[in-house]
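Quick question about two entries, pasted in order.
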Amino acid sequence: MSYSKTAKDLTKKEIDAYRIYLKERLENERQDLGKRYDMAWGIAKKIADILYHKFNAKSVIVFDSLTDKERYTVWSDVDLAVY
């Protein structure tokens, strides 16, 4: 039967292993977010192209978190203003 441990029950070896795991996980999440950010910009550019050519948009402006990589999160979307 397995049981859960609290942080105070972990050995130094278990804590060290967790720190290594957590560091790797955070780095992977950071890389994945960077890829997602780049993909979002690609989508914004494709949408802008369609809006310019198919709907004769005069201007397409990207705003909110896509304009600032530091504010971009996994919950961010592509925000465009069109006129």
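Here is the second entry:
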Amino acid sequence: MSTTAAFFYGTLMHPKILKKIIENDGSHLQICQAVLLNFTRHEIKFEDYPGLTASDLEKLDEWEDAEYERQKVVVHPLEDLVYLPDYEMPTIKPSALPSDSDLPGAVEVETYVYTDLSNLNADVWNFDDFVDKNAWKWYDPERAFTATDGPSEGV
């Protein structure tokens, strides 16, 4: 089975949301925190957001749709890989990034880059704020939700 390494920098950083989108428990995935240099993540106007199998990628491509372009990038893992079902989201702020010379080795991955720059706010998107205020909208089982239409207010 062919697999692809990916880097997520927005809503898909949340394990519950990632599992919902790929429509499986992610037990075949290993994840860790990583840094992508020379990129920033910004809020999208009026929105909450900013080793995969071919099936996972297909679902992610549908989810990200035409607003995003899948690109190969290089990231630096900041910790050891763990399997997704065993991953616990950090509860403390990460320490400062190491200097460029102290960064761990680079890994080529794919990520989704938002393409409509006119639709971005100047504000940088904050994952902690997203988790505190909006993540529940994306994975709450009481709400109607599919990979192609995103969260809704329920039926």
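Reply: The radius of gyration is 15 Å. The CA atoms of residues 36 and 75 lie 5 Å apart. Hope that helps.
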